[in-house]
Amino acid sequence: MKHPTLAREHVLAHMEELMTGAITELSSLATWEGDGNNVDLTDLNLCIGHIEQSLKARLADGTGGLDDDQFEGSMAGDLHRCLSSWDVGILDDAGFWSYLACGPLWFFTKWREDPAKRKPETYNVYIDGSKNVECVPLRMFLRAQAIGHQGDYALGEAVPQGTDFWRSHILRVRTGSEPRLAREIAKQHATNRMMVDNVREYAKRIRRRWSNEVIYALDPSECAAVARDERP
């Protein structure tokens, strides 16, 4: 299937205009790559419309009990539900994620990573699809993929003020690739939150388990035991 993609050179060339609001988004610069027919964007556009309306409602009515990172997590499930069945060749294309970040989901990227509050020289990480922990739509997808189970993505919003938790202790490490363990760690942290230093020690212990065991071979109860027993 052919899919929309945005070249990195276009992202970098127009980043300043995006950040200042001189242009609204970069969808018009996308090209279609791949073989066969164009992928049907109907469901994706509906999903993006839902995210946009949800964000507008949140901004109009307040947080609704969720902080910014939790709201990102709540929207992550919608995005993953829409895209998880797409061809892996599309999902592996950094240009596709750049297209989303700078194009139809720029409104969300701009809200979540406010250009006025970020360094201009490093802002590209939030819209570069090769930066999987930082690029806003891609990190949303990976977060939902790490904790989703049978269509339930509630854990994605379960950790208040969880930006560092998700990026440093789930997505940047192998734990993010094993949903059974990622879900248990998120459950533990959501119900019995640790201080920052303890979280870092916990993450080190989990990484040592990866070095000493075949984590992928563990069943859910064994993953739960790892998540519980390694808490400092």
Explain the overall architecture:
This protein is an all-alpha fold. The protein has two domains: 1-157, no CATH class; 159-232. The protein contains eleven helices and two strands. The protein has a two-stranded antiparallel sheet with strand order 1-2. The N and C termini lie far apart (48 Å).
Terminal CA distance reads 48 Å
Largest sheet: 2 strands, antiparallel
Which secondary-structure class do the elements indicate? mainly alpha
Which residues form runs of ≥5 with pLDDT under 50? none
Number of structurally distinct domains: 2
Q: Spell out the helices and strands N to C.
A: EHEHHHHHHHHHH
How is the largest sheet built, in terms of strand order?
1-2
Mean pLDDT: 94
Helical content stands at: 55-70%
Shape: globular
> How many alpha or pi helices?
11
Strand composition percent: under 5%
The number of distinct β-strands equals 2
Essential attributes:
2 strands, 2 domains, 232 residues, two-stranded antiparallel ribbon, mainly alpha, globular
Overview in brief:
With 232 residues, the protein is mostly helical. The chain is built from 11 helices and 2 strands; from the N terminus they run E-H-E-H-H-H-H-H-H-H-H-H-H. The protein has a two-stranded antiparallel sheet with strand order 1-2.
Topology of this protein?
Blueprint (H helix, E strand, L loop, with lengths): L2 E3 L2 H13 L10 E3 L8 H20 L6 H16 L4 H4 L2 H9 L3 H7 L23 H12 L15 H9 L7 H13 L4 H17 L7 H10 L3
Antiparallel strand pairs: 1-2
Helix pairs in contact: 2-3, 3-7, 7-8, 9-11
